[in-house]
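pipeline/complex-builder :: batch 7 item 3
reading input block
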Amino acid sequence: MTEGSVVLSVRGLSVRFLMPGRRTVAAVTDAHFDVAVGECLTLIGESGCGKSVLASALLGLLPGNAQTTGEARLGDLDLLAVDERTLAGTVRGRRIGLIPQSPAAHLTAVRTIRSHLEETVAALTGTRGRAALRSAAEEAAERAAFPGDHLDRYPYELSGGLAQRAATALALIGDAPLLLADEPTTGLDRDLVDHTVDALRHHVDTSGRALLVITHDLSAAARIADRVAVMYAGRIVELAEATAFFGSQGPRHPYSRGLLQALPDRAFIPIPGMPPELGALPEGCAFATRCGRTTDACAALPRMMNAVACHHPYVPEGTRA
Amino acid sequence: MLELRDITAGYARNAPVVRNASLTVAPGEAVGLLGPSGCGKSTLARVAALLHRPDSGTLLLDGEPVRRWRHRAPRELRTAFGVVFQQPRLSADPRLPLADLIAEPLRATGEGKAAAERLAALTTTVGLTPDLLSRRPHEVSDGQLQRACLARALALRPRWLVCDEMTAMLDASTTAALVAAVEHYRRSTGAGLLAVGHDHVLIHRWCDRTVHWKAPSS
Amino acid sequence: MAEAAAEREWRSYGISRRSTHTIRLRSSAALAVVTVLAVLLVPPLVQLDQQAVDLAAKLRPPSWAHPFGTDDVGRDLLLRCVYGLRVSLLVGVAAALTAALIGTAVGATAGALGGWVDRGIMRLVDTVSSVPHLLLGVFIVAMFRPGVWPVVISVALTHWLSTARIVRAEVLSLRSRPYIDAAVSGGASRWRVTVRHLLPAVLPQAGLAAVLMVPHAMWHESALSFLGLGLPTHTASLGTLIQGARGSLLVGQWWPTLFPGLFIIVPTLAVAGLAGAWRERLNPRRRSELTL
């Protein structure tokens, strides 16, 4: 990975929410990561760990009681510092394409897929004229493998898989260098998950975009990711190459190990306990109470060292120092 | 024995979503029902739990045909089933704190006195912590809420459990924890299970026997 | 890199969005408070007789002595308006409450039972709706001697229909939620499901409907009184005041009709503003801005 190929560079991004009674909820703390051209970074973690908040922060869609710090550079732009007008006019759709969680709900129920596509084409590419719009919309549908004979259907007439393709087609129109997929496979069947994930992967491989996928579905992550970022209690605790992470070497953070061991095709053993509240995080390592390797050292917050934030990480075989 | 014979069911006249389906669950047995979304397997699960009246077909419970559904079914029959649904947000009354949510079946059946004691046991079974019990559904995560929904389903010690896509919205660790809680309950009581889902790996790992289903041709 | 976190500058988002809501809410609340205070405090505190006739000062335009002017027998219109508002508000609130209670009971019954009970009740609602409200109201009032309570009954019996429809629709949509299934499976009786799960969920909506109905009921009372069918003419209500003054409007005396009219509009605006704010709070997403 060379410096020039980085599309999105996140440095020290934190998001907190101000709650009634002067409470604060630290939804995301000190996130650091890069996404490069032609690469898929998958952010995994359980529901409520802050990963969706991170996505909202990148798109400038946080609610009114949120505060952010740090930076998220997309080219020359700091996504956290620019105003709403810039985000709406030049970022959303044009520089970041969003693939939403539930595509059927994301589409307007009273308009056909064709009219969705034509509107987006007109807004993002400046194409004018009926015939030009029509052909551009059909081209956009084809890129996402959306069948042409379904273009005049309404969102509720589509199956989950086709709705997902329609949403993908919309996200691809603006030729955004970064695609952001927020839980793109929730509620889909396994076969559809595989299909959706393969299609996303294909777009990354052929067009050289960067893809950031946020998901709790580990098997989908294993299928699509080049690199994996594991999030726990608002912090990224491990960044790893996907082949090593899901392969024989395995993850290095005890939490990541626990997550993988909970899969039904592995040990199927849950991690004991529940994640801590984001409004009442402990002083030290947030995972210590659920971890089998806890010692006194864990009372201090572990720093990110060699891409893992743990005092006692698992050391890969053969690289023992 | 829970037997579904030749069940046809749906929500609109002349458009059944389930056609001529048959299924058997023996006491203590775990049966998985696999199929793509929209094939009507959730409807079949609701029929099995006496929550939806089929258009035709018979449901036999220990050899006795069931003739009445929902409120008309005798209370002992209704409460013989514990149900857990896919979306915890929709399965929980948004105004009830988790403690009331879990104890509601006990109160509804006149066992309110035993509620406090039972609540503590159920909370441990599903891995919730006591501090969460005073919260309302919008103040907890999906995983925590689904744990509470499972505790509610177990409150009346049902002989049958019907889990309709119970873990589809949950992460790997919570999935494993909830399945472990269900299995722990079944080992101690010998209850039968009908688990509906679309994740082959999970259902095969979880259940003794798996039934594959295809979408109706129409 | 963790050290840098100590000195952070936090950026905030979207604070300004709330201010307009607050302004509207505050002005509506102020209007409502003034109205209620005037109605509750003026009669016991101000030792003036609203019926005091002063024929020497009849039909005077607004002045310092009589800010709203005087009527055709020289009674102070400000005082008459306050007393009138008191009666109109009483009728409005009582009628709206009664109507909301009837509507909620009927709507919840129809929605919770469903089937032929629902069909029967809703046909009845349709039938009653097809008769013009005022006509039906006149008919009901005509069965009693003039007075406050016949008007309340008349307004209530013509205004419960919309609440019944709202509550029924809400109950129907809630009835198919999985949590109702879970309650059924948990052994809850039909009564318990209705009282514990369905009614509490529709009460905010029903309450909102009741609040919005208060101005409606006030207009209805005014209309009945204006037609001479509502309250007896010697009882000051906003309707009887306007009715009594309509003759003077033709000869260019505007104040005896304008001020009672304004007194109907002011509570209406206050109620609409407060109800709007309430509706916004009902939106469940606002209860907790944080959804993780």
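note: The mean pLDDT of chain A is 87.
queue -> next item
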